[in-house]
Amino acid sequence: MAVSRAEKEQELQDLSAAFQTADTAIVVDYKGLNVPQVTDLRRQIRAAQGQYRVVKNTLAKRASKGTNLASLEAHFEGTTAIAYTQGDAVVLAKTLTTFMKTAPKLSIKAAVVQGQVIKAAEVNDLASLPGKPELYAKLLYVLQAPMQQLVGVLAATPRDLLSVLVQVEKKKSES
């Protein structure tokens, strides 16, 4: 069934709007995946606050012009799908690399993270990083540690004085 020009224009506008808001995008080759696997992948990516779309290469090239994803234009060849998100890039990369362990036919072509193009191998490195919540927790610990040490030092003087007074009282009561 032929797709009308109006439908193509609508799809181009939808894709262009999605690419404008996307902060991170990973282009994948999905050749060899069956429908249940792709459905499962979509579900997992949605859970990671992302989107997954199978795209026509010419429409993807046109939609990416003027966006952060314009540098991916050379990778829109063959069977192409794109996973993109506005949120945490690490979560999206972890989701894809975890899924690739169960479906080795899925392969990453390239990615854009906050406007910078990264290679397929670097997506695995990105997936090995801790997520934002874990990084925030580590930062909070680093910021909180000096304050805890300062409180400990300031509390030590009265505590030590009290300990000395208790020892003196004990010594007086024994004699």
Structural class: alpha+beta
Low-confidence stretches: none
Task: Report the span from N to C terminus.
Answer: 106 Å
What's the SSE pattern? Answer: HEHEHEHEEHH
Main beta sheet: 5 strands, antiparallel
What is the molecular shape? elongated
Amount of helix: 55-70%
Mean pLDDT: 87
Radius of gyration: 27 Å
- How much of the sequence is in beta strands? 15-25%
Strand order of the largest sheet: 2-3-1-4-5
Instruction: Please give the number of β-strands.
Output: 5
Number of helices: 6
Comma- or semicolon-separated keywords:
alpha+beta, 59% helix, 6 helices, 175 residues, single chain, five-stranded antiparallel beta sheet
Structure description:
With 175 residues, the chain is an alpha+beta fold. The chain has helices at 5-21, 35-47, 57-64, 89-102, 120-127, 132-174, and strands at 24-29, 50-54, 81-85, 107-113, 116-119. A five-stranded antiparallel beta sheet has the order 2-3-1-4-5, with helices on both faces. Strand 4 and strand 5 (116-119) form a beta hairpin. Helix 1 (5-21) packs across helix 3. The longest helix is centred in the C-terminal third of the chain and has 43 residues, at 132-174.
